[in-house]
Automatic annotation (TrEMBL), chains A, B:
The keyword Secreted does not apply. Pfam families: LacI, Peripla_BP_1. GO terms for molecular function: DNA-binding transcription factor activity; transcription cis-regulatory region binding. PROSITE patterns: HTH_LACI_1, HTH_LACI_2. This is Catabolite control protein A. It comes from the Bacteria. Residues 5-59 form the HTH lacI-type domain. It comes from Levilactobacillus namurensis DSM 19117.
Amino acid sequence: MSHKITIKDVATQAGVSEATVSRALNDSPQVKAHTRQRIQELARQLGYHPNGLARSIRVQHTHTLGVIIPDILNAFFTQIVRAIEDAADAAGYDVLIMNTDEHLSRETKALDLMLEKRVDGVIITSAGGPTDYATRLGDTPAVFVDRMPPHKAERFDRVLVDNVQATEDLVTRLIDRGSTRVGIINSAVSMTATERLQGYHQALQKAGMAFDPAIEVNARTDNSNVSQMTRQILVNQRCDGLFAADNTIMDTVLHRIPELQLPPFQLGGFDDQDWFDFLPYHIVTAKQPISQIAQTAVDRLLARIRQPRMAPEEFRLPAQIITH
Amino acid sequence: MSHKITIKDVATQAGVSEATVSRALNDSPQVKAHTRQRIQELARQLGYHPNGLARSIRVQHTHTLGVIIPDILNAFFTQIVRAIEDAADAAGYDVLIMNTDEHLSRETKALDLMLEKRVDGVIITSAGGPTDYATRLGDTPAVFVDRMPPHKAERFDRVLVDNVQATEDLVTRLIDRGSTRVGIINSAVSMTATERLQGYHQALQKAGMAFDPAIEVNARTDNSNVSQMTRQILVNQRCDGLFAADNTIMDTVLHRIPELQLPPFQLGGFDDQDWFDFLPYHIVTAKQPISQIAQTAVDRLLARIRQPRMAPEEFRLPAQIITH
DNA sequence: ATGAAAGCGCTAACAG
DNA sequence: CTGTTAGCGCTTTCAT
């Protein structure tokens, strides 16, 4: 933020008042067409760039939305961001992105920064943990996407996939394709895990299969564990089906499988990836409706910005089962 | 940006002046330890959040860096961002990310927005095109990463991989692994393409192979073309080696290959991806030194922020050839 | 159609 | 150690 041309500079150069320059630059119809053009031209020549900070502090909004994601290396979130940008762009809003790398401390910092930068609203895919969003956010409008706030979630708008239905459909598909015994490696994100486990159970039940705790495991972030779990389920427990409850788990599973010398089996997971097509075996996924999730989130956020007192709501969107 | 608690509110509540509150909140040693704590506590209770805009406008910097990337769905840029964040974080700087989706108009908007938000400096991976960065940037420090500005590049700091050496090494590796005739589908990004083509030629020359224009093609953004080119080179032209000059080209190539029923062949490309391990055949890649690129970029940017008149420099970093 | 002046929230002299 | 005051760059009444 080095030495910059201000509106004052333009004003003196043009021989008018700062007010007139401001009006001219904002295309106010009050200012005579001729002088308006003259001023705009001059401003361009001088390389004038409006100071958005000063403007925002005056008009009391920034016209920008903040987006906080936990993992920018994860294609799911990256697609979410992309879709949010499209939706926000269509509504004439700017978007600022911050990545927390699944660190609570960085999420806290990210949120604080966005608040300090006075975004008009924020879309959060929480890194989980004990953050008290209610007090932290104050009255900044927020909507949660994909992952819910751990406490008092019902006080916020949230939009996410119908995890239990999607999982039920997915596991059912695995069974339809021939699996007789399908294990699960569940997500480390707690609420997501709970819901997906329920869907898993429903699918087994419908198929008349018994639950077996030995093949229901839950991932911590530790990668080697998931790798071991894969072997445990697919080899020791002789499953011919496996549901990897999320993106990152799937990744580890995929890394382990080749060295396992497995007989034919069915593999299912959440979140579609382009390159699943390249795998030497089939894979079925629950593809989340990313565009709709994003659209719903920004619609809702924008609505709340205009109408802060709206009652919070939860939006559940259906996933689509795809076989690669 | 709804109704918010200001420093004034805290001041009256605490029965002190705004200045004292400001000092207390900024941990100034000038204010008595006791009152400082009292004020900080009170601020917390009131849910006070400093207005960063007001602060920045006053102190004339934001302590934040802007990062503009052309494609957030591309893992390469995503990793770059991630590495930049780490480097910036270590230096105590915040970073704001914007994605342009390869649209010039969005890049222009993104850059303007960052300037309006008065980032202290900006790291740009240009979407290409005729943007005149010199006048657009004014005197905001900038460094270009991976893709150079189309005009007057020498007026800016830029850090990127040594494309020609990396390509030469890569293609040489392909040949070493048995390729006798290796084609190239080159990048749509012009300068990158030029350099990689040169490396390709150098490799052929060293191996005593003749160039054949029939197997030197250049991708436009049109996907179906790349798909056709793949067939053209690998089938019609009977190449037993192919160099896909970037990420997105490789993706299309990979999509086309299975249906081509090819005899053994060597495939090489830029930018490593985790899932290359899962492919049913080997692939060799030139892995860019992402962390170093990012570190160099932010080091340089920070240096330029302190010392704006430094002469611009170009930093070339070596890639690493990897076989999956 | 334009100008003068106030003020957004904050920090930095300058006084005391 | 704390208060008063001015001012960052901009927009917006209120005058004229």
